[in-house]
Amino acid sequence: MASLAELARAQTALSGDEIAHLQRLVAAWALPCDLSFADVLLSAPLDPDDRQTDFVVLGHARSAAGATVYRSDPVGESANPEILALLRASFFGGVARGGVIGPRSDAAPADDTVEEEILLPGTIGRVQIDAIPVRCKGAVIAVLTRESEPGLIRHRTTLESVYRRLWERFALMIEEGEFPLSLQEQVGEFREPRVGDGVVLVDRERRVVFASPNGISALHRLGVQSNVEGRSLADVGIDESVIQRALATRHSTVTELEHGPDLTVVVRCYPLIAGGRATGALAVLRDISELRTRDRWLVSKDTTIREIHHRVKNNLQTIQSLLRLQARRLSAAEGRDAVEQSARRIGSIALVHETLSSQVADVVDFDDVVGRIVRMVEEGLGGPERPLRVAM
Q: Does 23 share its domain with 141?
């Protein structure tokens, strides 16, 4: 499958900066997608100057919290003809009228988000579409669609309702060009928290507005036993500097909170921006205590392995020295050369173990090892009267 950049360069008129913006969006859209309880698709027009243009799907993500409506991955395919009018209306700033369920009741003024319910070929059934224009430096460059089965019978739970409102806040940030965020602090591999791990929503005064059940459980592990809603995390003894940094810098921030010697919770915080100002923040929490325990075990294991390499190296060098002593006692030139050659081979093996004993990685620099072996060969086979140089 072609990458987003390859598809965009081959089928759209997007510039390099616009493609980079969409790549950052796709890299960061796991959180909004999980909050949407739906499939999220990214589509771009083939010709942004033609109001009858077709669209190509550049990206697709499935929510970890909801059912998918697509049996296969639509990336690289042309957008379904049934939703072209909807995509065009969102891209060019209009509002689709036919078959509209209705715009969001809590949409911000001048919000050109379009919501429609249609039947798409290749999907499981009837699909409800939300179309959000994607802005980069003030210009609409693509359309993000949220596609789900319409929940006309099943009532939403409180958790789902809160998540949907959070999705709408992220959708507004995408529409205003505020998301993806300009900078995201990095966390260790496999430590990135997801929505299902637990979320805590705070307002601009850093007071907790909502905490998911898993979020409350994560706070309990950090020693918080009281109700946190309406209070700041600092009031209950939790370091909230990660939230302060997110609101002040409008960047995605991350930190690790420790409680006792064996418990660690990673907190990723996203500022929520509307109308050019931060209106709150969303903190996603994950208990990584088991990962930390494994890390400590791996560090101990690496230390043991390096010690083994060190001892093997010492033993091999001892054998090499004994062979050299034995070679000096041999009178036959042929036997002496054979023993010296064996000593050099053992020295080469010892060199590899010496390199492995001095670093954590299990991969060594080939050029460095071979260069040192070549110098050993030059010294062993050459001499003052017959210098030897090996070129690589």
A: yes
Give the pLDDT confidence of 186-220 residue by residue, as tens digits: 877 677 899 999 999 999 999 999 999 999 999 99
pLDDT digits (tens, 9 = 90+) for 35-76: 998 999 999 999 999 999 999 999 999 998 778 888 888 999
Query: Do the beta carbons of residue 264 and residue 288 sit within 8 Å?
Result: yes
Strand-pairing partners, residue 266, are 256, 286
Residue 55: strand, helix, or coil? strand
Residues 47 and 106 in one domain: yes
Helices (H), the chain: 4-11, 16-28, 30-36, 84-91, 158-175, 213-221, 241-249, 289-329, 333-357, 366-381
- Domain of residue 367 covers 292-381
- Per residue in 243-283, pLDDT tens? 999 999 999 999 999 888 889 999 999 999 998 999 999 99
User: Of 26, 37, 28, whose CA–CA distance to 192 is shortest?
Assistant: 28
351, 375 contact by CB (below 8 A): no
Number of domains making up the chain:
3
Average pLDDT for the chain: 84
Closest CA to 355 of 310, 325, 391: 310
Q: What is the CATH number of the domain that holds 250?
A: 3.30.450.20
Same structural domain for residues 110 and 33? yes
pTM for the model: 0.72
Same domain, residue pair 240 and 171 = no
Q: Which residue type occupies 156?
A: R
Tokens of 80: 């379904």
Q: Exposed, middle or buried by CB within 10 Å (0-12, 13-18, 19+), for 262?
A: exposed
Question: By the 8 A CB rule, do 56 and 13 touch?
Answer: no
- Amino acid residing at 197: D
Q: What is the CATH number of the domain that holds 20?
A: 3.30.450.280
**Gap between the Cα atoms of 240 and 234, Å rounded:** 6
Would you call 305 helix, strand, or coil by DSSP? helix
**Calpha distance 211→280 (Å, rounded):** 14
Check whether residue 199 and residue 264 sit in a common domain. Answer: yes
CA of 223: how far to CAs of 57, 118, 198, 263, 304, in Å?
46, 49, 16, 10, 35
Shared domain check, 152 and 45:
yes
